[in-house]
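hey m, so remember when u said the C-alpha cells were messed up on ur end? i reran from scratch. heres the input so u can diff it against urs
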Amino acid sequence: MILINLLPHREAARKRRRETFYATLGASAVIGGAIAGAVFLWYQAQISSQQARTTLLKSEIVRLDGQIKDIANLQTEIAALRARQQAVEDLQADRNLPVHMLNELVRQLPDGVYITSMKQVGQSLTILGVAQSNERVSELLRNLANASEWLARPELIEITASTIALSAKEQRRVSNFNIRVSLLRSSEVNQPASAAVGPSAAASAAKKS
C-alpha cells in the first residue's frame, strides 16, 4: 500500500530550521554573555588587585618620606655636633697659638727690624713696624714665607719712607711697613708632617719588599 503525505512538509522543515537557528542563536547569546561576564569579572579582579597594590605603594611612599625626613634631621644634627666638636678642638688647639706666634716673630725677625704694634683678627695678624731699609723688610717677608712654621702667606700692605731722630744732630732714614700674615692652627701645622711621613714609610716598605 502506498502512503501519501498530504501535509505541507516544506513549511514544517522551514519551521524546524527556524527553531534550530533560534535555539542556536539563544545558546550563542547565553555563551557569549557568560564569556563576557567572566572577562568582566576577571578585569574587575585585576583592577581591584592593582588598586590594592597602588594603595600599598602610596602608604609605603608616605612611610619612606617620613623616614627620609628623619634621616635629614639626623644628618643636620650630626653636622651641627661635628661643627661644635671642631670648634671645641680649634679652641683647645689655639690656646698656645699666641705663644707660638711670639716665638716665631722673635725667630724670624731680622736685625734692624722693629715691631711697633700687632693686631690679630681671627687667623690674620697685622704687623706694623720700622726697618732700617727696604731690604730688611724683604728679608722679613722671605723668613715668614719660607722659614716659619706657624706663620704663612705674608703680604706687604704698605711701606713708606720716613726719618727718625737719633740725636739732636743725627737723623736716619727708615722704612715703615705694614704686613699681614696668616696664623696656622696646630692641625694645619701637623698635617704636612703626617703627609710627609706617609710617603717615606711607603718608600721604606717598598725597599724592604
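this time it looks ok to me. The radius of gyration is 49 Å. if urs says something different then somethings off w ur setup not the seq
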